[in-house]
Design a protein that fits this description.
95 residues; alpha+beta; seven-stranded antiparallel sheet; 7 strands; 26% helix; globular
Length: 95
């Protein structure tokens, strides 16, 4: 899943070579060429920089993140709490 800065989520397919990545956004049916900035193999989080616009995209394996939240008993009171925990998970993974 692609997680934007405004916490919108989009289903994507990611193919990376050592540094160059291609992100296919299913909803928009477009391919984005980017460069891998950071990656965490344990939490399966990747930050990619778009070569055209310069925007940063965080790509997260939601199954892995959900497993992490269940193991650590993270509970959300509302959607805002969920968004804060997702952002914390991404930022912590890419430190």
């Amino acid at each position: 899943m692609l997680v934007s800065e405004d916490m919108t989520w989009q289903e994507v397919d990611l193919h990376c070579e050592p540094e160059n990545c291609e992100v296919y956004v299913y909803k928009d049916k477009k391919k984005i060429q980017g460069r891998k900035i950071k990656e965490n193999d344990v939490t399966k989080v990747v930050r990619v920089k778009d070569k055209v616009t310069g925007d940063y995209m965080d790509i997260v394996d939601f199954n892995e993140m959900d497993r992490f939240f269940e193991l650590n008993k993270v509970i959300f009171k509302n959607r805002v709490g969920l968004h804060k925990e997702v952002r914390r998970y991404i930022d912590f993974s890419l430190k």
